Amino acid sequence: MNDEAKYPIKAVSKLTGLSQHVIRAWEKRYQAIQPTRTGTNRRLYNEEEINRLRLLKEAIAQGHNIGNVANLDSEDLKNLITGNGSIAPAQTQPETAPHKPGVSNYLDELIAATQSLDNKRIERILLNASVTLSQPLLIDQLIIPFLQKIGEMWQEGSLRTFHEHLASAVIRTFLADLLATIKTPSHAPNMVVTTPSGQYHEIGALIVALTSASVGWQVTYLGPNLPAEEISAAAMEKNARIVLLSIVFPPDDPHLKLELERIRVLLPDNISIFVGGRASSSYLETFKKINATVFKEIRELRTNLESYHSS
Description:
Number of strands: 8
Largest sheet: 5 strands, parallel
Structural class: alpha/beta
CATH architecture of the largest domain: 3-Layer(aba) Sandwich
Shape: globular
Low-confidence stretches: 88-100
Helix content: 40-55%
Mean pLDDT: 86
Order of helices and strands: EHHEEHHHHHHHEHEHEHEHEH
CATH class of the largest domain: Alpha Beta
Number of helices: 14
Strand content: 5-15%
C-alpha cells in the first residue's frame, strides 16, 4: 500500500462517503486518524488512513459507537465487521451497545440524552447518524422530528426549559459545522439566508441554509434577527438570486409584516423571496402581497430550489 500522504480532505470525503465535518471530528475528539499537516496546516491523508476511515464507517453502520472503535487497529476493525472480533466489555457503554441503527433508534437515544443533560452524547449520536443516514433523511426524519418532540415534551411539562436550550445549542453547533463543510462551485447561484428583525430562532434558518447548499446553491448565512435594510444590502452585495427567510415565532407580529414589505421594496425585482418556518402560515396574506414563494416542508424547498436552479 502506498503510504504517501497526498489526499486532501475534500478528496477523502468523496472517497469514503464521510463528510469533512465527521472526518475532522473523528480526528479531534477520538484521535481515530492522524493526518499529515503541510506547512500551511492543510491535512493530507494516505491510502491506509482512507481505508481506516472506510472501516470505521462500516463499523458505525453496524451499530457500534465511534468512541468504542476509534482506537482499534485496522485488523481488529476488519474482524469486528466480519463478526470475528468483539469489543472488550469494559469499553462498552450501556447506551451505545451495538444495534442496527435506524432513525427511530437515533431519535430515542437523542431524547434520552437530552433528558439526562448529556450534551456530549447528543453530539456523538448526531455524528453517528450523519454517517449512516443520507442528508435528507438526517434532516427530514431525525433532526426536525427531534426538535418537534423536544418542543412537545416541553409544552406538556415532561422537559424543562433548560433541556430544550441544551438540545437546541448542540443542534445549532452541529448544523453550523455541517454547513461549513459543504463546498459549492464558484459559479453556483447565490442566496442569502437569515431571519427578519424580531425573529431570534435560528435553527430553522440553519436547516434551510444547509438544505440549500446541499442542492447546489452558494449560501451566505447571515444569522438571525436582521433588519430589512441589512438583509437587502447583503443580498445585493452578493448578487443573490434568492433571499430565504425563516419565520418561527410569534405568529402575530405586526412589526414583522412591515419588515417583510420593506424587504420587498428594497430588493430589486430580480431577487426572489422564499419563506418557510413554523409561523409562516400566519402571514400568508403578506407573503402574497410581496410575491414570496412559501414552502411548508423541507422537501418542498428542495424541489423548488432544484427547479429554480435549472431555470
